[in-house]
Amino acid sequence: MIKVKDIASAMEQWAPLAWQESYDNAGLLVGDKNQEVSGILVSLDCTEEVIEEAKAKNCNMIIAHHPIIFKGLKSLTGKNYVEKTVISAIKNDIILYASHTNLDHAPKGVSYHLAQKFGIKGQVLSPVKENLKKLSFFVPRENAESVRMALNSAGAGQIGNYDNCSFTSEGIGRFTPNQEANPHIGKALKAEEVEEMKVEVILPSHKEAEILQTLFTAHPYEEVSYFIQKLDNTWNEVGAGYIGELEKEISEADFLQMIKQKLGIQNFRHSPKTGKKIKKIAFCGGAGSFLIQKAKAAGADAYITGDIKYHEFFDAENQIILVDVGHYESEVMIKDAICEYLSNIFCNFAVLKSETNTNPINFA
Predict the structure, then answer these.
(1) Which residue segment(s) compose the domain that 85 sits in?
(2) 219 is in an annotated binding site
(3) A Pfam family matched by this chain, by name (predicted)?
(4) Are residues 162 and 226 in the same domain?
């Protein structure tokens, strides 16, 4: 029996809620975390039409990229589409879950999958900072390996494509247990010297509590000597946007045709052509004008995103082609990625892609 909390936990392994922006509202929005799930419908947005589709397909959980409840609700009277959608979900006992800016920032998140449409593999355009910490602790030599492995299993010691990363140095630990102590080594009121290892590992800030609990459980000492430092390091796998290169440079005209072909669209806006070849391309699914300067600084020949304002197109300054393909068009492919991710975890369970076009923008 698969419950809402199981699905939420799987999604948050990929895109922890701690990675969402402060203004966001990702996570479980409507429903009981202990409710059994009959099926999942994955959509970019949640609307009344999507609720009806979920009912028709016997899916009692909807996972959307955009949170239907974004700003605070002060009433549920059905006066707008947000309230109508939430009321419909509650009446039909349908769970609503959103994975938004946390999924934008996640490894292989929204911008990564936009780049995959163009066959590009690269790296995060704007990695996050101050989301990593260093844990240092002291442990008897004979226990160092088991404690280290327990911490690795809890999520410590991962650096990029490398797991089980740590640094160990040797030394002598000194302590005197008092009368109330129950020491693993030594006796009360007797000074002890023990060959110890100092172990240092990197950990994600959002996993600090879990990793510390693992340390306390795995460590043999009654009182564990440890300290944590906040790091200024960039976390290159987590952040906004994506950038990489085509195998071969192409003309601007071919590049613009490529966009139509790869994204299946005919209409989009772009800044003036620069007269240069296109090879390095930056991406950001959704509203990405905040990364224009980052894309330019990274040497991108073009930047594909959505929601660029009129005056922001001037920021191209003949250095880059800014391409606004539309908010919906730059993110809709994440539906396939979510479906594939959850289907691989929950085998023989219905994870369906919504067929409802929720794009509110039309062209005459």
Answers:
(1) 4-104+333-353
(2) no
(3) DUF34_NIF3
(4) yes
